[in-house]
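Justification of resources, computational component.

The compute hours requested in this renewal are based largely on the per-chain cost of generating structure records like the one below. Each record pairs the submitted sequence with a full structure-token output. That output is archived, and it is also reused by downstream analysis tasks.
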Amino acid sequence: MPAVIEYNMRTKPEFFDEVLDAYVLFADAFGMVNPQEDLILVTADRRRQIIRGIGVFETASEALEVGHAAMFERFRDSVADKLTEVPEREELELIHVFVKTVE
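The structure output for this chain reads:
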């Protein structure tokens, strides 16, 4: 069953853009080399200083493996001092996906 991982980071205000840019670069690089990742979304709530990474995986075990990947650990370490608290990782069950094709 597909799994969705939501990874939330609360940034220090002065580092919001820097962490956001780093997350986007990381997500693109990670998605290119990681066959388990089916979809990566990065969202931002500037008012609350929250950056969310949302990944969709075939299975929960694949999602768990990615959380321990060296590339992900390097990214977390690179932004750790720019965050106000330890990031939160939550696993969600994927219930439905709708994608509209625009022609």
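Residues 3-93 form a domain with the Alpha-Beta Plaits fold (CATH 3.30.70.100). The first strand starts at residue 3 and ends at 10.
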